[in-house]
Amino acid sequence: xxxxxxxxxxxxxxxxxxxxxxxxxxxxxxxxxxxxxxxxxxxxxxxxxxxxxxxxxxxxxxxxxxxxxxxxxxxxxxxxxxxxxxxxxx
Length: 90
Known about the structure:
- By secondary structure, this protein is mainly α.
- Helices cover 56% and strands 9% of the residues.
- The chain contains 3 helices and 2 strands; from the N terminus they run αααββ.
- The chain has helices at 7-25, 29-32, 34-60, and strands at 70-73, 80-83.
- The protein has a two-stranded antiparallel ribbon.
- Helix 1 (7-25) runs antiparallel to helix 3.
- The longest helix has 27 residues, at 34-60.
- The relative contact order is 0.14.
């Protein structure tokens, strides 16, 4: 389950960058060897999954610095809201 709003986008970006790096470091092999291209896609997918797991792990027990502006709604006992400016992880 994604815990970051842009998690899918981040994972896709990592996958693309890893694939492109593998392809560049082995320049030209994909045209003559489709199996190499398939392997690079598989490796890029695996690495992006690892990166996603790391992000989830790092953010499961995160603390946010106090003082971040928020908007709220609801009674004082049942406040719900969203941040309105960037936060800082401690």
